[in-house]
């Protein structure tokens, strides 16, 4: 029986889940804290054949993989694979799986919540009311406005449905345009035309730093920027500058280059930004479904059956 190891269940989601019961009878070890770095990660998984990865802070670099000659599968809980050196994994014949689609509805709902929070100035108005004020903010009405999407995978398509549901025109750019999810436009035109622009591509070598100063300069001064994908897709310093100078109207952000945000982060002092802690996909429903699928990928690997294969 292969050894299965969970190196990073902090805060705990795997151990208290119903899905974890599926592993009863298997040779499983679960760590309830995160490894301090690559050396400790390698020490934890050195003798494992299968790893179920919970946190993206565990980085499976080429050096880590080299120290783990028994490793044959990394089953990721979640969609993102940017914490795994996929080329190194492929070279070492280590399979990598993920759990696509399970969080699409939750992330789309969170995206809409951020859109509403920023455009309706919910946070600022709430704070003012608590201070005894009675503001009369002239906030944005979304019906008839343009929602622009960068990426139309499972999450992007759900966001498009929600946008259309509240009467927004939906335009989009993606790597492979197909179907009638949105009006297809060029990459630059999404920035030019959008009143709300939302990012939904996976972070990879092709998307790292994809959005930068020149794109914020294309946006309308009143437009807002939403990111529930990955922080590294955006050049963060350029986004901060666009918000500090009011080049754009605001931002709703669930992801950042460095997580958690460091003390003194410039985002803390931005009144036109609403911040959440990479929690868009964290609902009881998606957690259970995602963990169950990560475990099913393990079972499929053991049985030699098809998986949600990345490499």
Topology:
Layout: E1 3-6, E2 27-30, H1 38-45, E3 50-53, H2 62-66, E4 73-76, H3 86-91, E5 95-97, H4 104-119, H5 122-130, E6 146-150, H6 154-165, E7 169-173, E8 183-184, H7 187-193, E9 196-199, H8 213-216, E10 224-227, H9 236-244, E11 250-253, E12 273-275, H10 284-303
Parallel strand pairs: 1-2, 1-3, 3-4, 4-5, 6-7, 6-9, 7-8, 9-10, 10-11, 11-12
Helix pairs in contact: 4-6
Describe this structure in words.
The chain is α/β, with parallel strands linked by helices. It folds into two domains: 3-102 and 283-303, NAD(P)-binding Rossmann-like Domain (Rossmann fold), CATH 3.40.50.720; 104-275, NAD(P)-binding Rossmann-like Domain (Rossmann fold), CATH 3.40.50. Helix content is 31%, strand content 15%. It is built from ten helices and twelve strands. The chain has helices at 38-45, 62-66, 86-91, 104-119, 122-130, 154-165, 187-193, 213-216, 236-244, 284-303, and strands at residues 3-6, 27-30, 50-53, 73-76, 95-97, 146-150, 169-173, 183-184, 196-199, 224-227, 250-253, 273-275. A seven-stranded parallel beta sheet has the order 8-7-6-9-10-11-12, sandwiched between helices. Strands 2-1-3-4-5 form a five-stranded parallel beta sheet. The protein is elongated, with a radius of gyration of 21 Å. 42% of the residues are buried. The mean pLDDT is 96.
Produce a short descriptive summary.
The protein is of the alpha/beta class and 311 residues long. It has helices at 38-45, 62-66, 86-91, 104-119, 122-130, 154-165, 187-193, 213-216, 236-244, 284-303, and strands spanning 3-6, 27-30, 50-53, 73-76, 95-97, 146-150, 169-173, 183-184, 196-199, 224-227, 250-253, 273-275.
């Amino acid at each position: 029986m292969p050894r299965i190891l969970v190196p990073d269940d902090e805060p705990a989601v795997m151990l208290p889940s119903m899905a974890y019961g599926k592993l009863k009878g298997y040779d499983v070890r679960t760590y309830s804290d995160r490894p301090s770095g690559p050396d400790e990660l390698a020490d934890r998984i050195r003798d494992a054949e299968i790893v179920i990865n919970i946190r993206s802070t565990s980085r499976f670099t080429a050096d880590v993989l080299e120290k783990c000659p028994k490793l044959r599968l990394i089953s990721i809980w979640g969609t993102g694979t940017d914490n795994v050196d996929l080329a190194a994994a492929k070279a070492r014949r280590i399979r990598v799986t993920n759990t696509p689609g399970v969080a699409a509805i939750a992330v789309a709902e969170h995206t809409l919540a951020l859109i509403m929070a920023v455009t309706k100035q919910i946070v600022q108005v709430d704070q003012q009311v608590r201070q005894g004020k009675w503001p009369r903010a002239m906030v944005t009405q979304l019906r008839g406005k343009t929602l622009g999407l960068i990426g139309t995978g499972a999450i992007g398509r759900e966001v498009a449905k929600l946008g259309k549901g509240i009467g927004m025109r939906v335009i989009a750019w993606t790597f492979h345009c197909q179907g009638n999810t949105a009006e297809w436009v060029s990459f630059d035109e999404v920035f030019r035309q959008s009143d709300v622009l939302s990012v939904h591509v996976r972070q990879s070598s092709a998307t790292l730093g994809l959005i930068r100063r020149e794109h914020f300069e294309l946006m309308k001064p009143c437009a807002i920027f939403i990111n529930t994908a990955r922080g590294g897709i955006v050049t963060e310093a350029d986004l901060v500058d666009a918000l500090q100078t009011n080049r754009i109207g605001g931002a709703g952000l669930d992801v950042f280059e460095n997580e958690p945000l460091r003390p003194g982060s410039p985002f803390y002092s931005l009144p036109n930004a609403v911040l959440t802690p990479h929690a868009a996909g964290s609902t009881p429903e998606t957690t259970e479904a995602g963990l169950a699928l990560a475990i099913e990928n393990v079972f499929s690997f053991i049985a030699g059956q098809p998986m949600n294969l990345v490499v």
